[in-house]
C-alpha cells in the first residue's frame, strides 16, 4: 500500500511534465544548446554496435559530434559486449593521452568495480546509459552520469498502452477490464530497466483518470537483445497461458522487435510496445507491427556526454555549457512521446 501511495504521488508530480512533453512537436536534440568544446583528448567506448541499433546510433553520434568540434580529439571504439575488451580499449586510450573517458559499460554487473578502479586512478569518467550503480557513483567525485529519464520512459510507455486500450476495446480479449500483460525486461540490475518496468506497469494501473487494473502473466529478462527476446517469447508461446496475454511490453525496441518476429511466426497478433525510438522500431510502427515506442535521444546523450568529457579533460566544470541541468553529477536527457501524428519527425531525413 505504501509503495502504491509513493507511486501515485510520483505520477501526480510527473503528469504535468508529460503533458507538456506530449504537446511539443520539436525534437529536443535539434535545439542548439551546444557551444564550442574546449581543446581536449577524450576516449569513448560503447558496449556494442553489432546487435543494438540504439548503441549503434550512439556510436555514430559520438563520431558526428567530434567532426563538428575541431578542438576535440576523440578516441572511439566498441567493446562487443566484452568488459575485458572494453577495459583494454580504455587503457589504450589513456596511453594515447586521453584525459577523460566516456563509457557505456559492456557489463553493468562490473560497473561498481570498474568505477572504483577508475576513481582510485583519479580518471574522470562520464558514464552513459549503462549506470554503474547509484552508491558507487555517489562515492566518487570523478564519476558522472548521462542517461535518459527512465522513469519518464516507463510512464510514457504505460500511457501509450492506456490510450491504445481505450481506443481498441478488442484488446480486452476476455472482457474483464483488466490488462493482462507480458513484460520483457533488460539486463538484471540495470537501473534504467528496473525503472522502465516499474513506472510502465505503475502508470497503466495508477495514472490519474486513465488507470486500468493490470495482471502480470509473463515477465522475464531478455538482456535488451533481440535474439534473446525471440528465445524467451518462443518459450512463452508454448504455454497455454500465453493465450491470455493482451499486451506485450519490452524495456527496449530490440526486444519488442524480437517478440514481434515470434508472434508473426506463430500467427499471433498482439499490441507490442517498446522504448528507444530506433529506426527499425519506427519502421515497424509505420507498418503497424509495433503499437508504440518512445524516443530515447541517443544523439543528445552522446553530445552531452562528450561535452562533459571534454570539460573534465580540460580541467573545467563538467556542466559548463552543456545545456542541461545536472544534479548529484547526473544529467537526465528527456524522452519524447511518439505517435502517428509525429512519427515522420523521428524518421531519418528523406524517409
TrEMBL record:
Annotated compartments: Periplasm
Main location per the UniProt record: periplasm
CDD domains: PBP1_GGBP (cd01539)
Keywords noted in UniProt: Calcium, Metal-binding, Periplasm, Signal, Sugar transport, Transport
Gene Ontology MF terms: carbohydrate binding; metal ion binding
Example of a GO cellular component annotation carried by this entry: outer membrane-bounded periplasmic space
Pfam families linked to this entry: Peripla_BP_4
InterPro entries: Bact_Solute-Bind_Prot2, MglB-like_PBP1, Peripla_BP_I, SBP_2_dom
Domain spans labelled Periplasmic binding protein: 50-316
Record flagged with keyword Lyase: no
Family membership: Belongs to the bacterial solute-binding protein 2 family.
Assembly behavior: The ABC transporter complex is composed of one ATP-binding protein (MglA), two transmembrane proteins (MglC) and a solute-binding protein (MglB).
Record protein name field: D-galactose/methyl-galactoside binding periplasmic protein MglB
Natural source organism: Conchiformibius steedae
Record lineage: Bacteria, Pseudomonadati, Pseudomonadota, Betaproteobacteria, Neisseriales
